[in-house]
């Protein structure tokens, strides 16, 4: 049978069975594409005039306007931007400018001295440290609220003045906990020679405060380690004298450490000593 007749026969069978040829499928796809395109263009032309006549949505510029007596007034958007930026650096500020560093380091050393790697868990230690930090820093926070936050909310002072007022009690707290040697060291690095402590810039006070807090935390941790170290040495010596060298001393000493810590009311002593260490500074 010639090729043309075969094509005609196949086309007739396809139409008889209700099937579509390749050309018909291509034609239908092209028609569908053209219809979809026309529909999208129609929708676009309908909604563009509405968008053009809508009220423009714009935010006020981030501006700083000079005021009376050399003061500067920040726009609301700029104040919001500064506030959001402070929220992002809040964890760093919490660790660097409050009592949190000393407390969390001492609690971590205490857990290691007892010999329990995961008890209390990190979440519990951080929770204890946060609430202890709030307890220790409450006078500072109250002072900041009275001198900076409330006057600013009442619109009696400007935003820069509120920031300056908030630095005063926080600076005083950090200077009370900072050693003179650490402060002198960072003043030397910064090449500054302030006449009084109130003239020391925050860029010098903060690193000096962190250095002093680390040193104080490790000193307290060393004192906490000593009684538990003595228990480990005694248990290890007894086990070696009994010839039980294959038995780990940590397994035997852990119950005695826990018993000693509970009998002397260790948590009250540790947390109370931490709180009083800030009060006596």
From TrEMBL:
Keyword tags: Bacterial flagellum, Bacterial flagellum biogenesis, Bacterial flagellum protein export, Cell membrane, Cell projection, Cilium, Flagellum, Membrane, Protein transport, Transmembrane, Transmembrane helix, Transport
Recorded topology in the membrane: Multi-pass membrane protein
Source superkingdom: Bacteria
GO cellular component terms, semicolon-separated: bacterial-type flagellum basal body; plasma membrane
Positions of transmembrane segments: 78-110, 122-141, 222-246, 258-280
NCBIfam families: fliP (TIGR01103), PRK12797.1 (NF009438)
Family note: Belongs to the FliP/MopC/SpaP family.
Protein name as annotated: Flagellar biosynthetic protein FliP
Species of provenance: Legionella bozemanae (Fluoribacter bozemanae)
């Amino acid at each position: 049978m010639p090729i043309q007749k075969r094509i005609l026969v196949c086309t007739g069978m396809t139409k008889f069975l209700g099937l579509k040829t390749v050309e018909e499928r291509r034609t239908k796809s092209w028609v569908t594409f053209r219809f979809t395109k026309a529909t999208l263009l129609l929708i676009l032309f309908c909604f563009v005039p509405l968008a053009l006549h809508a009220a423009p949505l714009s935010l006020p510029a981030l501006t700083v306007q000079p005021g009376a007596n050399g003061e500067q007034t920040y726009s609301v958007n700029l104040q919001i931007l500064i506030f959001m930026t402070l929220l992002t650096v809040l964890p760093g500020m919490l660790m660097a400018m409050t009592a949190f560093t000393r407390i969390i380091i001492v609690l971590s050393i205490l857990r290691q001295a007892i010999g329990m790697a995961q008890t209390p868990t990190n979440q519990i230690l951080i929770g204890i440290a946060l609430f202890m930090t709030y307890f220790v820093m409450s006078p500072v926070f109250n002072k900041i609220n009275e001198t900076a936050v409330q006057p600013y909310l009442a619109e009696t002072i400007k935003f820069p003045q509120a920031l300056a007022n908030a630095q005063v009690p926080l600076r005083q707290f950090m200077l009370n906990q900072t050693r003179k040697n650490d402060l002198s060291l960072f003043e030397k690095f910064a090449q500054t020679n302030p006449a009084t402590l109130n003239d020391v810039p925050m860029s010098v006070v903060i690193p000096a405060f962190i250095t002093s807090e680390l040193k104080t935390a490790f000193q307290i941790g060393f004192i906490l380690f000593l009684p538990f170290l003595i228990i480990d040495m005694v248990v290890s010596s007894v086990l070696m004298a009994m010839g039980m060298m294959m038995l780990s001393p940590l397994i035997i000493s852990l119950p005695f450490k826990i018993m000693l810590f509970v009998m002397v009311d260790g948590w009250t002593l540790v947390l109370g000593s931490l709180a009083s260490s800030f009060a006596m500074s």
